[in-house]
Amino acid sequence: MTEPRWLNDEEQRAWRGLMAMDEGLSAFIDRRLRTRCGLSYSDYRVLAHLSEATGGQLRSFQLGGLLRWEKSRLSQHLSRMQTRGLVSRERSQADQRGAVVTITPEGRRLMAAAAPQHVADVREAVIDQLTPAELRTLTKITDKVRRRLAALDPELGTDTD
């Protein structure tokens, strides 16, 4: 068995910084959405995908793929959102096997209220903190890592959300 390639101090700092940034950004965005709009970050992501889809609807498996969620997590989350009147679920008319998830008028209303505030938060926390060169570098880094992840695990894909 070969010796692990342990991270050196610089690599460790970069890795831990990335993890702390990811956790911090997710918590910040979630807190802002909940406080301002009553939506969780997960709710927002579901509604964003649905609002961008043709007719405001997607098959459950498509939505799960975009979110990279397990079937059970998606089902449970959609049930909570359906109870709150944000989405509806119906059997697919095409094959009667799968479900179609549709954004409701209430879901659209909340999305319309949340989106401008969300983009302002993203700008405040990340985009406006970077120079144009830093933003290009960040894009190159994230694209490169996402491509590698897709090669290592094709289920991760390279879609953005």
Structural class: mainly alpha
Helix content: 55-70%
Radius of gyration over C-alpha positions, nearest whole angstrom: 19 Å
What is the CATH fold-level name of the domain at 27-114?
Answer: Arc Repressor Mutant, subunit A
**Strand residues, percent:** 5-15%
SSE run: HHEHHEEHH
Largest sheet: 3 strands, antiparallel
> What's the shape?
globular
Residue stretches low in confidence (pLDDT < 50, at least 5 long) are none
CATH superfamily of the domain at 27-114: Winged helix-like DNA-binding domain superfamily/Winged helix DNA-binding domain
User: Tell me, what is the CATH class of the domain at 27-114?
Assistant: Mainly Alpha
Strand order of the largest sheet: 1-3-2
Report the total helices: 6
The count of DSSP E runs of length 2 or more, i.e. the number of strands, is 3
Whole-number mean pLDDT: 93
GO molecular function, one term: DNA binding
InterPro entries: HTH_MarR-typ (IPR000835), MarR/SlyA-like (IPR039422), Transc_reg_Sar_Rot_HTH (IPR055166), WH-like_DNA-bd_sf (IPR036388), WH_DNA-bd_sf (IPR036390)
Protein name: DNA-binding transcriptional regulator, MarR family
Pfam family, one: Staph_reg_Sar_Rot
SSE blueprint and pairings:
Layout: H1 9-37, H2 41-52, E1 57-59, H3 60-67, H4 71-83, E2 87-91, E3 99-103, H5 105-125, H6 132-152
Antiparallel strand pairs: 1-3, 2-3
Summary, kept brief:
The protein is mainly alpha-helical and 161 residues long. The protein has six helices and three strands.
